[in-house]
Amino acid sequence: MSSFTLIPPSPLLPLVFSLLAALSIAAFQPADNFLLACGAASPVALHDGRLLLPDLSSSAFLSAPRSTALSAPSPAPSPLYRTVRAFHLPSSYLFPLHSSAARNGLLLRLHFHPFPSPSLNLSAALFNVSAGGAPLLSLFSPTAAPLAKEFFFKPNSTSLRLAFSPASPSSFAFINAIELLSAPDRLFSDDFTPIPSSFSFYGAPLSHHLLETLYRINVGGPAVTPENDTLWRNWEPDDKYLWTPSRTKSVAFTNEIKYPNGGTTPEIAPEFVYGTAREMNKGNSSNSSSPSDYFNITWNFPVANSVHGYFIRFHFCDIISKALGELFFNVYINGYSAYKDLDLSSQSSFTLASPYYIDFVVMNRSNTGSINISVGPAEQSLPWKMNALLNGLEIMKINGIVSFSKEDKKKLLVGTVIAIVLGSIAFLCGLVVMVLTLLPQKEIKDQVAQSRDADTWSPLPVITENSYRRLIELTNASPSTNANLQLRVPFAEILLATNNFDEKALVGAGGFGKVYKGVLRNGTKIAVKRGVRGSQQGLGEFQTEIEVLSKIRHHHLVSLIGYCEEQAEMILVYDFMEKGPLRDHLYGSKNPSLTWKQRLEICIGSARGLHYLHTGSAQGIIHRDVKSSNILLDENYTAKVADFGLSKLGTDSNQGHVSTGVKGSFGYLDPEYFKTQQLTDKSDVYSFGVVLLEVLCARPVIDQSLPWEQINLAEWAMQWQKKRLLDRIIDPSLKGKTDRKSLKKYGEMVEKCLAQYGIDRPTMGDVLWNLEYALQLHERAVHQEPYGDSISGTSDVSSSCPAGSSMTNNNTAERNDISVGDATTHVFS
Ligand SMILES: *[C@@H]1O[C@H](CO)[C@@H](O)[C@H](O)[C@H]1NC(C)=O
Ligand SMILES: *[C@@H]1O[C@H](CO)[C@@H](O)[C@H](O)[C@H]1NC(C)=O
Ligand SMILES: *[C@@H]1O[C@H](CO)[C@@H](O)[C@H](O)[C@H]1NC(C)=O
Ligand SMILES: *[C@@H]1O[C@H](CO)[C@@H](O)[C@H](O)[C@H]1NC(C)=O
Ligand SMILES: *[C@@H]1O[C@H](CO)[C@@H](O)[C@H](O)[C@H]1NC(C)=O
Ligand SMILES: *[C@@H]1O[C@H](CO)[C@@H](O)[C@H](O)[C@H]1NC(C)=O
Ligand SMILES: *[C@@H]1O[C@H](CO)[C@@H](O)[C@H](O)[C@H]1NC(C)=O
Ligand SMILES: *[C@@H]1O[C@H](CO)[C@@H](O)[C@H](O)[C@H]1NC(C)=O
Ligand SMILES: *[C@@H]1O[C@H](CO)[C@@H](O)[C@H](O)[C@H]1NC(C)=O
């Protein structure tokens, strides 16, 4: 290590330099790249091929009223420490910067080595250093050994003043070498998970703080020096921080490390880091499941007891598994569960040996003067597959004011959270309790009273096995100290799931914002609706949606699986609906056209969802924006009603309506509501009637390109229905493939839904029953006379009103539920 090269200025210099540069593995070219040998008279070449320029001949402007340049008397430990500049008065370097510096940030390395010198006792130095006015080092006195301090920050102007101030007139400052280089894009971003997770980080985003590197570890491998690092960093081995070395072993990988597209890059950490790791040493008993095989690998890093937060980056790369999905492990920071059941194979690339990193910010240092990092096998691992690994680790101190807050500042959603927690507890205690929780006595009485009415499908809260389990998984996947069941999803998870809101993942856009497809770490496909930040209307809808959807779960309503409101984001996370909006299966797309049976089943599903909405929850909910683009289809064409942003909770049951400003979608809007501004559940029935016409006729509800009498689907279709000739205008692809009686039933029901006055319209329950009936007529016809349209007109059981046949109706519904309802857990059947 003692050799260094002092290259004399010569015409060959550029050639030598470029040769050296070519040898170095660094592909990243920083826009700003200052390398200063302070106090040097000529350029100094580093082992990694880079060249330091004398500080006086660099483009950084040195302002030093009284300074001394010194050279090491004996060979220095590295060319970096060959020379020094000492400042006896406040002094500074001014670095001109590219504009990208403010965006991507800068890496600053300051090198100090108080080598023995006859003219100045460098060990006696005591000084402050600041960058752009922000303090980096205070009352600093470098120790005898060479020392490098590294910082990351985003400058707020196009030049940076690096200032050195002696602590007293008799004191002085010094510096051996300076590296100032632009960081690659997104080296550090604001996507991290707070620990403990009950805290959140507020105030300036993390990337606006100054980070000081404390530890950078190549776990299970040798030191990685600047020549083998993409950003000329140093990575030290982990041995001296390891708690029980004998219980661990290091592994090295000789094949190629596969950096994922659009994910972790070699600049995050080089393959020298990802290619080595430490895993559990289970010795010869590798196939036993004895308790002694169940332990953590722990590292302990001393840190100063200060009020700073710490940024911790874990580098992982599964170089030990033989197959995907073998390895599950837990990650702990200071005894907190930071990541439970981490499954590296489920990360974006789905390959082994693919690098992956996770960032945490430790909010609450436990006053013990150290940070403990552990990885240990997950309980769910197979006994002989139990293992855990870590490839690299970085710990940085967050300088400046770091603000943390307890979650309960989020007053808005407390009710929601309580509802969820209560709901989940109730679920665990038993579904009956759950039903009672969600349906207060009064409501039950109301329903008993209502059961005089024709329909009594049990409007029970149906939590499907699936959605419940997902909820649990999701909350487990997110760091949690105690098992509080929240729907809150860390922003980082969402960025991960959507690949940083990759435009390729965009599946839709609307008034509220954009919708992206994503995949959670556990493999669940999700739809991520990202609201336009700062929109007041958006905020209202966002809150309504959470409020409504957290109260109710039903097989035919989309499930909200989480939300995120970190950093002014308004993000809703739903189950992903593979087949998208119903509308796209009716017209205007290349989707194959749906059969009459499929259409009826979709309408039945949607009606069931709306019926549940109207009657199933304590307050009754009016959707207010029923339309074909708000009915989504999953991979089995099961219909789910979506978009509750406009919905209204709490119809006053005495009045039966709520007064509101008119909202909804043109073409679907209930004319009575429009006139009176009084909203009832019959407004949804009207809109649903329009959807039924859309389904039948496969055309938009408003089509300006048509002759004027045809523009409005509802008006036009009703003219034909009144003449009992609705079949003339149905979707051509249905012609001859629908049973006549089924169609007749359907048309009559649509007509009732579109009645002028709400009071004349059927309830959603009636609609549901009539649709069921229309489906039965169709099925029967198909079975008796395939594709026939000549069924006799005598068995028209209950064409006008389903009243008086509630038992039959009920049975029909139940039967249908059982046969169709694959994932539905029907509570009272
Ligand atoms: C240099 O300064 C340090 C700190 O003040 C002191 O401990 C040390 O004895 C000094 N060395 C010499 C050679 O004076
Ligand atoms: C830049 O930041 C420093 C300290 O962080 C502050 O004193 C200075 O006013 C800022 N400059 C601008 C232009 O915002
Ligand atoms: C150095 O930093 C300390 C602590 O931040 C401060 O109290 C002191 O005034 C600073 N000294 C100079 C000369 O800037
Ligand atoms: C850099 O990597 C090469 C290839 O693995 C290795 O031979 C060399 O020793 C490494 N250099 C340092 C300084 O770690
Ligand atoms: C483990 O196996 C090795 C060789 O297979 C053997 O030398 C060693 O004694 C064994 N250790 C124990 C604790 O059984
Ligand atoms: C370990 O034991 C399990 C069953 O106990 C067996 O399925 C598995 O193949 C064994 N693995 C090894 C490596 O022997
Ligand atoms: C770190 O782990 C060690 C060993 O498990 C333990 O003794 C120590 O108290 C822990 N420290 C912290 C800060 O958790
Ligand atoms: C690993 O450490 C965490 C945190 O200290 C602890 O909760 C957990 O029980 C440990 N696991 C094992 C297997 O010892
Ligand atoms: C840090 O944790 C301790 C207990 O572990 C707690 O008493 C203290 O309030 C926490 N500090 C903050 C800032 O929350």
Distance between the termini: 79 Å
What oligomeric state best describes the polypeptide chains here?
single chain
Major pleated sheet: 13 strands, mixed
Number of alpha- plus pi-helical segments = 16
Tally the structural domains: 5
CATH superfamily of the largest domain: Transferase(Phosphotransferase) domain 1
The CATH level-2 architecture of the largest domain is identified as: Orthogonal Bundle
The average pLDDT score comes to: 77
Radius of gyration: 34 Å
The name CATH uses for the topology of the largest domain is Transferase(Phosphotransferase), domain 1
Distinct compounds present: 2-acetamido-2-deoxy-beta-D-glucopyranose
Helicity level, as a percent range?
10-25%
Biased composition (Low complexity): 788-800
Transmembrane segments: 412-439
Protein name: Protein kinase domain-containing protein
Domain Protein kinase: 501-774
Task: Explain what you see.
- The chain has about 850 residues and is of the alpha+beta class.
- The protein folds into five domains: about 30-185, Sandwich (Jelly Rolls), CATH 2.60.120.430; about 205-400, Sandwich (Jelly Rolls); about 405-440; about 465-575, Phosphorylase Kinase, domain 1, CATH 3.30.200; about 585-820, Transferase(Phosphotransferase), domain 1 (Orthogonal Bundle), CATH 1.10.510.10.
- Helices cover about 25% and strands about 25% of the residues.
- It is built from 16 helices and 42 strands.
- The strands form ten sheets. Strands 1, 2, 3, 4, 9, 12, 15, 16, 18, 19, 23, 26 and 29 form a 13-stranded mixed sheet that branches.
- A hairpin with a 5-residue loop joins strand 38 (about 630-635) and strand 39 (about 640).
- Helix 10 (about 595-615) runs antiparallel to helix 15 (about 765-785) and helix 12 (about 680-695) runs antiparallel to helix 14 (about 740-755).
- It is elongated.
- It starts with a strand and ends in a 9-residue tail after the last helix.
- The model is unreliable at about 1-25, about 405-485, about 650-655 and about 785-829 (pLDDT under 50).
- One 2-acetamido-2-deoxy-beta-D-glucopyranose binds near residues 295, 296, 374 and 376.
